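Following the same procedure, backbone shapes were mapped to integers, as reproduced here:
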Amino acid sequence: MSVRKLKPITPGQRFRVVNGFDAITTDKPEKSLLAPKKRSGGRNSQGRMTMRYKGGGHKRRYRIMDFKRTKVGVPAEVASIQYDPNRTAFIALLNYQDGEKTYVIAQNGMQVGQTVVSGENAAPEIGNAMPLANIPLGTIISCIELRPGQGAVMARSAGAFAQLMARDGRFATVKLPSGETRLILVTCMATIGVVSNSDHQLLVSGKAGRSRWLGRRPRTRPVVMNPVDHPMGGGEGKSSGGHPRSRNGIPAKGFRTRSKTKASNKYIVERRKK
């Protein structure tokens, strides 16, 4: 993992920091695992804009991912580590011994030629997927299920990881990337290791055009709007705009919006830090 600072031969490159892509081994995706990806541009079925600041961007094809790791006990060889335009992490192409191919999220340190396996009898090594019941306490994990058989939903983005803290009966205590400590059923699967591309947070785009390539349109700051458009709009000149809040009037910067009667509150041991 490394980043490169470009020589500024154009204004857009002056502060640009790009990924070194050291871990990437091929630029050709597996054709059988590609699917079309439709874009709405923030418009509904009537063609009216319902979501602001979306639209444009480079055309993408979706890589069909295996988040469930259901091929229990079947070893797979890591054929390549690839870039995925739909996520911040890198992905790994697995060739199973029975001939099937799948994409999974790559972990830091995953190498081409490495053998990975999923299931209760797997060793707690990088890239292997195991139930929380079989993972040693204190292990760094990622790609965690919240319900058995659901598929990985937590700690999937670049550089993300969680830690298995304790086990008690049916539940394991996991410290999540947000800082929240939560109970998760021990039958849920998780992958050993930290998600790849941990240098993603160091990248600097360098110019507004790169946001357009990603499908993000220019965003209007609430403070420059009129009072009719936003609670923070209005005023003469550069007035502060009052308390930071959303367009609907919900306060920002620390205001807690989680429902106090949410059913899953009982599984949260410690809330994330403000």
About this structure: The chain has a mean pLDDT of 95. The chain is about 0% helix and 25% strand. The radius of gyration is 22 Å.
